[in-house]
What we know:
The protein has 298 residues and is an alpha/beta fold. It has one domain: Rossmann fold (3-Layer(aba) Sandwich), CATH 3.40.50. It has six helices and 14 strands. The strands form four sheets. It has a seven-stranded parallel sheet with strand order 4-7-3-8-9-10-11, sandwiched between helices. A hairpin with a 5-residue loop joins strand 5 (90-93) and strand 6 (99-104). Helix 2 (79-88) packs parallel to helix 5. The chain is globular.
Amino acid sequence: MAKLFNVNSDPQGTLIDYNKGLDNIPEAWRETLGKGVTVAVMDSGINASHLSLTKTKIKSTFCSVDGLPVEDGMETNGHGTKVAAIIAACGEEDANGTPVRGIRGIAPEAAIINCKISNDGNYYEGPIQKAFEYLKTSYAEDPLVVNCSWNIAKSQSLTAMFNGLPDNFLCVCAAGNDDDLSDVELFFPSFLQKNISVGCFSDRSLISNMNESLEFFLCSGPVKSCGKNNSYADFENCSMTTAMVSGVLALCLSANLGEHQNLTIGEIRNTLRALQSNQPYQSGLTIYNNPGSIKWTS
């Protein structure tokens, strides 16, 4: 059984450390903490003043929402903040700089690009196109994980854009929360071959869209993350599991910097697939083969 996480505690009084909760991954991945890797959180903005995020490295901010200034990375609905926290929150620190409360993400030393493409939880083609143009211009060579915990109607122009992204871009995309047991098409852009698709189910029910093209299928939670203002809350959807995969990919990339920096996208995906399990469903955060899954352990 390829268990990846084993974390269950109350962030109001103590620390949830997703990195230390990782299991069944190479120790070198965990030790890197994601240092040297950048993750673009393409979402509704990030509340960087949340107590668990004040030490998180925000490498840059770019807002592509019509009518808002380009430097406006703040959000109002909480979605981008909870996603960013799973990936790279540093937690609330004591006087000695030690995380003692809140959320510590999977890759707390990874740098975050705050790409704000929505102000209200709705996603549109124009802001998405502008954000990717910014990323292509500013981060053309470095390994870049792009977390896309959202869906949008399929379009020819967006399909061409995703298919034409540089090889150093790893787009991790939510399959959708359609909770249908039948063979349901994954939401766009997750089903594009170049993108990494992530689904979600819980101990109680299927949450996401699912068919044989789904690459990673994760059983989730509820998962605790940063809520509005300085709160913490439970979340249970593809947005969370997509962020988990982005965090694990950041660790994988970080561990392979230097002499292995030219690791291809295909090699990275195969490395993650190697953690999968063919065992029947059990409680715990586990990766399964075809469709794969990372499952939450209570």
